[in-house]
Amino acid sequence: MIYKTEKPAILMLDSGLYFKGIGFGAVKKVSGEIIFNTIPGSGYVELLTNPTNKGKIIVCTYPSIGNYGVPAKLRDEYGILKQFESDSIHINGLVISEYCDTPSHYESIKTLEEWLIEEDIPAIQWVDTRRLTQYLVQNKTSMGILQVFDQNSKPNIQALREEAKKLKNLNKRNLVEVVSTKKVKTYSCENSKATVLIIDLGVKNGILRVLLKKKMDIVIVPHNFYYNNIMELRPDGILISNGPGNPKIYSEIVNLIEKLLNTETPMMGIGLGHILIGLAAGAEVYKMKAPHRGGRTTVKNSTNQCYITYQNHGYCLKSLKENGFSEYFHDKDDGSNEGLIHKNKSIFSVLFNPEGSPGPLDVRDIIFDKFIESIKVKK
């Protein structure tokens, strides 16, 4: 039951299925692709600020969210936010089972709801997230509307249902151009070993922190930076970052990568960057029925070594053609591709997020050290 002092909220799917709940955060109506994520009770700050989730309505499968509040936006010596993946929230809306409005953590300065209100993001609780997640897996893609009403309003279910049916396929939007930097940015560290150029498709702060910790200078360029401009900067290595959206629509970036593959510059791709390298190498991409979104997912390499990873992707490569590449990693559960590696050049990529992956065998160091070693060999 929704009491008079509470804000009613509706999550309406494009199929007409809907969920009633209690709203928190901003009083607002938003639309977007509805996806789930299996992060545990911690990690929602990083989840909400991850540019890869731009424009999404996120369903958290963990039963209680908000338990440790939100930390202060403190920056490190390079000016990078310490516990946030970007400077703002990127999701359109949040769907959870139960919201914790009394957080407990020594670094917390505000509640999750206060943060959502500040950034004008609506959220809904008391939703059967298990049923909803099962529905999302069975139907691959669901667009929908999330609306949080004020206390005195009554939701019009039929109007929302008709509006949701008319939603266009939001997967055709170019979200990379929204999250990518508009100008060249540089980060320099003491005793630098080399310079890495990042093609910014929505790069996470966690990637920057790892590279700087490993004594790499960084040059970040926009997604539409020209090939000649990149080569004029003479980078020691190139990283094609994670990012949001449907890989099939980024043909211009794929064309750029095709040119870069013909150089001798060491190259690495992460997330969307991995898929675009695959497309440039002649592979095909498909939308997954059961996306990989969350932590504790096992991947295996060609020598049968297993690593625990964090993943956040709904697309995957298939029909891997030779073109000098072979499979580097695959998912242990469903066998889907999780990495590529070139047989002769210093080029490889991973679909998972190495910078934030847990486990006793730290795949973060394995992946980034491999990239840095390839740069040192080239130099």
How many E strands?
21
Strand content: 25-35%
Assign a percent range to the helix content.
10-25%
Main β sheet profile: 10 strands, mixed
How many domains in all? Answer: 2
Q: Strands across the major sheet, in which order?
A: 12-14-13-15-16-21-20-19-17-18
Classify the oligomer. single chain
What is the third-level CATH name, the topology of the largest domain?
A: Rossmann fold
Question: Which CATH-level-2 architecture of the largest domain?
Answer: 3-Layer(aba) Sandwich
Global outline: globular
What is the end-to-end distance?
Answer: 66 Å
- List low-pLDDT spans: none
Continuous helix count: 10
Q: So, the CATH homologous superfamily of the largest domain?
A: Class I glutamine amidotransferase (GATase) domain
What's the CATH first level of the largest domain?
Alpha Beta
* Average pLDDT rating: 93
- What would you call the structural class? alpha/beta
Radius of gyration, rounded?
21 Å
SSE topology sketch:
Blueprint: E1 7-13, E2 18-25, E3 29-37, H1 44-49, E4 56-60, E5 64-65, E6 70-71, E7 93-95, E8 98-99, E9 108-110, H2 112-118, E10 122-125, H3 129-139, E11 143-148, H4 157-165, H5 176-179, E12 185-187, E13 194-199, H6 205-213, E14 216-221, H7 227-232, E15 237-240, H8 251-261, E16 267-270, H9 272-280, E17 284-301, E18 306-318, E19 325-331, E20 337-342, E21 347-350, H10 363-378
Parallel strand pairs: 3-4, 4-7, 5-8, 7-10, 13-14, 13-15, 15-16, 16-21
Antiparallel strand pairs: 1-2, 1-11, 2-10, 3-11, 6-9, 12-14, 17-18, 17-19, 19-20, 20-21
